[in-house]
Amino acid sequence: MLKITNLQKTFNPGTVNAKTALCGLNLTLADGDFVTVIGGNGAGKSTMLNAVAGVWKPDFGTIEIDGVDVTNMPEHKRAQFLGRVFQDPMKGTAPDMEIAENLSIAARRGTKRKLIWGIKKHERAGYRDLLAQLGLGLEDRLSTKVGLLSGGQRQAVTLLMATLRKPKLLLLDEHTAALDPKTAAKVLEITDKLVTENHLTTLMITHNMHDAITHGNRLIMMHEGRVVVDVSGEEKKNLTIEQLLNLFEANSGTMFASDKALLSK
Questions:
Q1: Side-chain half-sphere exposure of 123, counting CA atoms within 13 A
Q2: How many Å apart are CA 70 and CA 142, to the nearest integer?
Q3: Which residue numbers in the chain have pLDDT < 70?
Q4: What is the tens place of the pLDDT at every residue in 48-60?
Q5: Angle at 187 between CA 105 and CA 31, to 5 degrees
Q6: CA distances from 127 to 16, 95, 121, 169, 245 (A)
Q7: Angle formed at CA 68 by CA 67 and CA 71, multiple of 5 degrees
Q8: Considering the entire predicted model, what is its pTM?
Q9: Region for 61 from its dihedrals, namely left if φ exceeds 0, alpha if ψ lies in -120 to 50, beta otherwise
């Protein structure tokens, strides 16, 4: 579903501020893979997600989504393949619009628009059913402005919006990092439910090592713009954080350096 081949990206090339963020990155995701991504600061995690989303154009290499080469496809056209949830709960929704209106926009994504009367009765009933599955009581707040919701509630609505059209690829960029632990756990529970029920191919960046091991069927660790650890299946399921750190050290030749990730052990 996703194939990244020899992807390279250097910011500010030819200057004293030159920074190589991706260094010959190779990564392939099969249909339905749920891959968690972890790495230290500057490892290239967000640069990789932004490259897939079309925010950055790589210096070299190719990106394919479901067999389509999107390397040179502009961001707005590439969006038809993708769903994305950001770290900031304020992104991904229209705060001055109602929950139902936000879901309606997501439901019509990629379709031709025309002037019709608002949200139809059957659509509102469908949104109520979808929200009820989240277990947050939002099904009774369809007319509430999204800007009045808590951070966790907004992320849950954003997740629902990002998966409503069943994208080819779901990108989660530390989408629980700004939430308190209890709320983050609930959002991750909702994430697992939506990904599993919709059979979504997913890339989830996280700074939490426990979450990286617990969620998904595959885990990769990045270092200096490339993948240095790639574990899946039973090997991933049985991993301890100490074993993961040892794998990183053995494959990268350096100690893992991320205070945020280490504090989440």
A1: 15
A2: 36
A3: 110-117, 258-265
A4: 999 999 998 999 9
A5: 70
A6: 52, 18, 10, 22, 43
A7: 125
A8: 0.93
A9: left
Q: What is the pLDDT of residue 262?
A: 54
Q: What is the pLDDT at residue 120?
A: 86
Phi, psi of 146 (to 5 degrees): -60, -30
Domain that holds residue 98: 2-263
What CATH number did the domain enclosing 50 receive? 3.40.50.300
Per-residue H/E/C for the chain: CEEEEEEEEEECCCCCCCEEEEEEEEEEECCCCEEEEEECCCCCHHHHHHHHHCCCCCCEEEEEECCEECCCCCHHHHHHHEEEECCCCCCCCCCCCEHHHHHHHHHCCCCCCCCCCCCCHHHHHHHHHHHHCCCCCHHHCCCCEHHHCCHHHHHHHHHHHHHCCCCCEEEEECCCCCCCHHHHHHHHHHHHHHHHHHCCEEEEECCCHHHHHHCCCEEEEEECCEEEEEEEHHHHHCCCHHHHHHHHHHHHCCCCCCHHHHHCC
Nearest to 170 by CA among 79, 102, 43, 237: 79
- Using alpha carbons, select from 141, 106, 216 the residue that is nearest to residue 172: 216
Q: Which residues contact 169 (CB under 8 A, 6 or more apart)?
A: 1, 2, 29, 52, 65, 81, 82, 83, 200, 201, 202, 203
pLDDT of residue 115: 55
Instruction: Give the chain's domain count.
Output: 1
Tell me how far apart the alpha carbons of residues 38 and 22 are, in angstroms, rounded to a whole number: 15
Predicted local distance difference test score (pLDDT) of residue 136: 92
